[in-house]
Amino acid sequence: MSGAGEGLAPDATVVVVGASLAGLRAAETLRSEGHRGPLVVVGAEEDFNYDRPPLSKQFLAGAWGLDRIRLRPPDKIDALGLDLHLGRRACAVDVDGRRVHLDDGATFDYDGLVIATGAHPRTLPGAEAATVARTLRTLGDATALAGVLDAAPAGGVRVVVVGGGFIGAEVASTCAGRGAQVTVVEALPTPLGRVLGEAVGAACAQLHRDHGVQVLTGTGVDAVTATPAGAAQVRLSSGATLDADVVVVGIGVVPSTAWLERSALHVDNGVVTDAALFAADQVVAAGDVCRWAEPRLDGEHVRLEHWTNAAEQGVHAARSLLAGRRHAEPFDTVPYFWSDQYDVKIQMLGHPRPDDDIVVVEGTGSLDEGRFVALYGRGGRLAAVLGFGRPRQLMGYRPLLVAGASFDQALAHRP
């Protein structure tokens, strides 16, 4: 057993709770950097070795099969020597006693613990009993929705997407591409307005409309009820109703921390950690569940739900655990996110806020063009960069974010 704040012994026991991307990257890093002790991995899903981003895009579109979304081939997984416990959930952790309890009664003692339980979809009140109301988070979710699209009549299935965030937007894009009649319902005045700002959010809404998707904003959903024919009726807060063959609920996710509520860890919109991802001595967190002290925001605690963040934090959490709390380095990176919608790749670098100064620097100088790069400035500094269909130009601004450039420097830069 390692002492408080010290690194792990090579033969120590590590338990990884959460078997998706962040947990897998943590396990791989532990092995690649010399850890040879027992490595227990607990995952709530029976199938853990797959990538989530394609679920709402290539997999749902039918362009990729299961083999294309595997994170690693089976022999690579076998080579890690993992003690896998899939289809099981952790239900409690005793931080002082260093023990994890599972829902089947099993317990595992650990010298190091990686928390990577991710997040789960928010539910829509009033839609719980409607069998046609679905979320899209897991391989099972995507397979079921793809089955609905596959069985669509010649006129196309009627899809109502509740929520105009990135997941909802990707599902709308993919379903429209498969010939579905798609309506997006967004409670906010502008989709993604609270993330990207009202003007950019309006450009996102227009992208949908340009591809034949109806976008209804400023209205919520009061109820989803099944019809005798097996379809659904969606009642909006405006009083209007929509008929649908399937309703996809994409109103965000909640960090999966219920199993930690009685632990000694600080849980507040995720597992709260220091800059090196430690939640306690010998306990680190990574991915969607982690809310860490971000050095680039002067130690403000943030939680990101991005693929790149989960991958990078899984690696860093393992390295922090190996080094020990006294010697671990801060997790310091420029966040990166992308979303494929219709024929446009939307990419973001940094930490945007809706009240930032936003200036279009690539394109015609207007968001109406549909392909542009916009800079986000805050407090005289460059805070983020957004690109619509301009990947090369966007990445040209990354060195400025790394260096902490001023907004004026960024405006004068031409990649």
Side-by-side strand order of the widest sheet? 3-2-1-7-20-19
Mean pLDDT: 93
Radius of gyration: 22 Å
Distinct helical segment count = 11
Distance between the termini: 51 Å
Stretches where pLDDT is under 50 for at least 5 consecutive residues are: none
Largest sheet: 6 strands, mixed
As a percent range, the share of helical residues equals 10-25%
Please give the CATH class of the largest domain: Alpha Beta
CATH superfamily descriptor of the largest domain:
FAD/NAD(P)-binding domain
Structural class: alpha/beta
CATH topology of the largest domain: FAD/NAD(P)-binding domain
Number of structural units classed as domains: 3
Plain-language structure description:
It is a single chain. This protein is of the alpha/beta class. Helix content is 23%, strand content 29%. The chain has three domains: 14-120 and 254-323, FAD/NAD(P)-binding domain (3-Layer(bba) Sandwich); 133-249, 3-Layer(bba) Sandwich (FAD/NAD(P)-binding domain), CATH 3.50.50; 343-412, FAD/NAD-linked reductase, C-terminal dimerisation domain (Enolase-like, domain 1, 2-Layer Sandwich). The protein has helices spanning 21-32, 58-61, 74-79, 139-150, 166-177, 193-196, 198-210, 307-323, 391-395, 398-403, 407-412, and strands at residues 14-17, 39-43, 83-86, 90-94, 99-102, 107-109, 112-115, 119-121, 133-134, 158-162, 181-186, 214-217, 221-226, 232-236, 241-244, 246-249, 253-255, 271-272, 278-280, 283-285, 290-294, 300-302, 336-341, 344-350, 357-362, 372-378, 381-388. The strands form seven sheets. Strands 3-2-1-7-20-19 form a six-stranded mixed β-sheet, with helices on one face. Strands 9-16-10-11-12 form a five-stranded parallel β-sheet, with helices on one face. It has a five-stranded antiparallel β-sheet with strand order 23-24-27-26-25. Helix 1 runs parallel beside helix 8. The longest helix is centred in the last third of the chain and has 17 residues, at 307-323.
